[in-house]
Write a structure and sequence with these properties.
nine-stranded mixed β-sheet, 345 residues, 21% strand, 32% helix, single chain, Rossmann fold, alpha/beta, 9 strands
């Protein structure tokens, strides 16, 4: 007699996923009577799950240095976003002689640090990252944006000295500690972005109506969640970070900083991205991306497109490059520029 025992954990988790309610997913729209109400409910739940809470902490900023380059004026700041959290922020202002500019917040993912955004290679490995189109700040300046380069928690200057030799990534232990303390690295990084936008709004040179954000991989992840939770972000470019949770985070090895406990009981990634609607959202993907498989990307984008078109808004786009896990400037910037009216260098 053939038995049907299930000894493998993966079979159990696949069963649980198949039976997850996803109670706030747009796919359950027969239970949704009002689009804005759906967004508010999901946004509230997302903030609860990642443990992103509003606080009254007043940021402080310190201008560390200024110097001029051929293309831009470089202002180096340290911004305190919480009592024991200082964030290095580089602001590159194009040499266009204008009174104010649109802003592009630039976020690196699991790279050696924010210097990659500014096109600085400190090693042969850095040169490989730059070959993947990750010098976002230089691209932004050349396209007439103020580039705001944020060093994300655990990377570059914010890399922790206390990292186990067995840790699979530089942010693994910080992610574990954050989860044990009831938070997530996603929430902590998003909080940095929200506080930095508060700071940017105090600068006369900034067009507050044109604050944008972009990033690749882990930078794309935080771009997505930041825009989902902060409506001041008017355009979001998410590169190699958008897919179904099922096909990517759930099924493949990813760093622990991607994890939102219990998210699949409420929503898929397309639903989270739907919180950005009707604001502009550009999804960039690689045909051969091994971390965010293109099949899952297309599936998630189909669901996202349904959300946007329910509001009769055609403000989301999917751009697919021919290679893998990298950024595709020649695909993304023409669309960004068509959506934000700017003067280019």
């Amino acid at each position: 007699m053939e038995n049907n025992y299930c000894f493998k954990p993966s079979e159990n988790y696949s069963y649980l996923l198949a039976n997850a309610k996803k109670s706030l997913s747009w796919k359950n729209k027969h239970e949704i009577t009002n689009f804005q109400e759906w967004q508010e409910k999901l946004k509230s739940k997302l903030m609860e799950l990642i443990h992103c809470t509003s606080d009254d902490f007043q940021i402080t900023s310190h201008l560390i240095s200024t110097h001029s380059e051929d293309l831009y004026e470089h202002l180096s700041y340290v911004i305190k976003t919480s009592p024991q959290n200082d964030v290095p922020v580089q602001i590159l202002i194009p040499n266009l002689g204008l009174n104010n500019y649109p802003v592009m917040i630039c976020l690196q993912g699991h790279t050696p640090g924010a210097h990659i955004s500014m096109g600085v290679a400190k090693s042969l490995k850095d040169e490989e990252y730059l070959e993947g189109g990750r010098d976002f700040a230089l691209q932004a300046v050349k396209n007439g944006f103020i580039a705001v380069v944020v060093e994300q928690k655990c990377f570059g200057q914010r890399k922790d000295d206390i990292i186990s030799q067995r840790a699979p990534s530089v942010c693994y232990q910080s992610a574990v500690k954050s989860l044990l303390l009831g938070s997530t690295l996603i929430a902590e990084r998003v909080n940095d972005i929200i506080k930095i936008i508060n700071f940017l709004e105090t600068l006369d040179i900034v067009q507050n109506e044109n604050i944008c954000i972009m990033g690749n991989s882990g930078g794309g992840t935080i771009s997505l969640y930041s825009a989902a939770l902060d409506s001041r972000i008017k355009l979001t470019c998410v590169s190699c970070a958008f897919c179904t949770y099922e096909d990517s985070i759930f099924s493949l090895y990813h760093c622990l900083d991607n994890i939102i406990p219990n998210i699949l009981q409420y929503a898929e990634m397309a639903d989270v991205a739907g919180l950005i609607c009707p604001r502009n959202l550009i999804i960039v993907a690689g045909q051969k991306d091994h971390l965010f498989p293109i099949g899952g990307v297309k599936k998630a984008y189909h669901d996202l497109n349904e959300i946007y078109h329910f509001e009769t808004k055609n403000n989301c786009s999917l751009l697919i490059g021919e290679e893998g896990h990298r950024f595709y400037p020649t695909l993304a910037w023409p669309l960004i520029n068509s959506l934000i009216n700017i003067h280019k260098l």
